[in-house]
Target: L-fucose isomerase
Amino acid sequence: MAKDPRYVGNLPKIGIRPTIDGRRKGVRESLEETTMNMAKAVAKLLEENVFYYNGQPVECVIADTCIGGVKEAAEAAEKFAREGVGVSITVTPCWCYGTETMDMDPHIPKAVWGFNGTERPGAVYLAAVLAGYNQKGLPAFGIYGKDVQDAGDTNIPEDVKEKLIRFAKAGLAVAMMKGKSYLSIGSVSMGIAGSVVQEDFFQNYLGMRNEYVDMSEFVRRIELEIYDKEEYERALKWVKENCKVGPDNNRDGFKRTEEQKEKDWEISVKMALIARDLMVGNKKLEEMGYGEEALGRNAIVAGFQGQRQWTDYFPNGDFMETILNSSFDWNGKRAPYIFATENDNLNGISMLFGYLLTNTAQIFADVRTYWSPEAVKRVTGYTLEGRAANGIIHLINSGAAALDGTGEQTKDGKPVIKPYYELTDEDIKKCLEATQFRPASTEYFRGGGYSTDFLTKGGMPVTISRLNIVKGLGPVLQIAEGYTVDLPEEVHDVLDKRTDPTWPTTWFVPNLTGEGAFKDVYSVMNNWGANHCSISYGHIGADLITLASILRIPVNMHNVPEEKIFRPDAWSMFGTKDLEGADYRACKNFGPIYK
Ligand SMILES: C[C@H](O)[C@@H](O)[C@@H](O)C(=O)CO
Ligand SMILES: [Mn+2]
Model:
């Protein structure tokens, strides 16, 4: 598989550390094989269940020897550094010496699995070493099975598997974003606070850097033709053949001419190529004499200001944002480029979290309207029913959502969003067929362009999330798991027309718990911290919580069942009854990883 230019260097690996009781002449020797086998079993489990962005199984590196003391701990650390390990998991079936065998690297997310047996107590080591990690301020995840296993049992129990996988995915997400950039194209859109870049957040919490390019760079590259011209011709042809143009909804006198619309397509396609090149570079540009431009900005996520200085004069960025965020384009299927509308970098990071945890495209949306059953009844005469009975939330933005958001991909007959490497030609065809590209509303977008218009299929489990920053508190994450829902066509039409029918709609219903922010649908909307959210396929709230805890970002609202919540052991030292409060206290106490 060709290496994606956005991932400079090797992909981070997972390092496995088998720790052991160092006493020779009997104890250590009797445990060597069992301990190493635990490490191998964990490597196998992860290689079968955790995948990089391109579908490759995660690579695990096992320490060369079991770790009985500090010398072997240092040798393992050296091997891990050489191999590019970004996440560590310590495993043991027995008692070992806590502080002498620990992983001391403060930047590497860490977990310990202590085998729950009683002959040689791995779980006792687990407790001892976690106390050491806590005392030293290096939060680590503790894993030990609910049920006692027999010594020598090589099976990993289901509860342990779930925790190992959840930790590995979140730890890998942390390692994947480290050292990468967020690229702002333009600056702040329409006073949206999320598009103000808070560099300390990126640097201290995510280990990322911030890059900036003025939107005038599009003009320079368009006018001087600094893009791969062969690819451009191919892309434009593909667009003409595959992207259906829908009706122009603009009033007479506000419509763009056919000639302008033709030109809008050309600019829209060029913008997509140029934005991608700005993010990750393009070798073709070097051949054309643009060596500097060929390098890109090492961006794993980007955002485009668009409104208003660009869109008041040039075609909007909707097509560029849609196609970059999708799992395919004129080159066929490929990993999505995470790209935030309105340069809302906080939503961009929410999208990045969802993407790195699932390898699937993310949908950028405004959290636009809560429709109560009463309001729907009043304006349409229809009584909401089924999952929608308690009200619905209209997720919609000005046409920049990933085409995967149509819900037209299927697995076992059900609508899903797949990682790009699982897409079929049929999936791609259906996403395109379900989408119209509508001449942009010129009231908003004076420079025209094309907005993506689709209606997400109902019945998909999804999670919406959003990162917010509060002065004095720092970043906080909010999460709502729920489902997309279908409405009768005529009901959708009435509600959609009240907003802007040229934009993509997702009707969302959160899972209610009857408490707090999840008391009812209204409260979910009412507690949303900003105008945008990222929609991820699947119920990934538990994975987001684990990820947030590694990054020391507290979660201010979620509806994830308590038994799925997995955070570092230290969190319970901040209280065990009020988990939300304990999360805030723990995050504040430890602070960001890269401070
Ligand atoms: C066209 C409008 O300005 C929209 O872009 C606006 O409602 C937003 O999306 C705000 O987030
Ligand atoms: Mn918006």
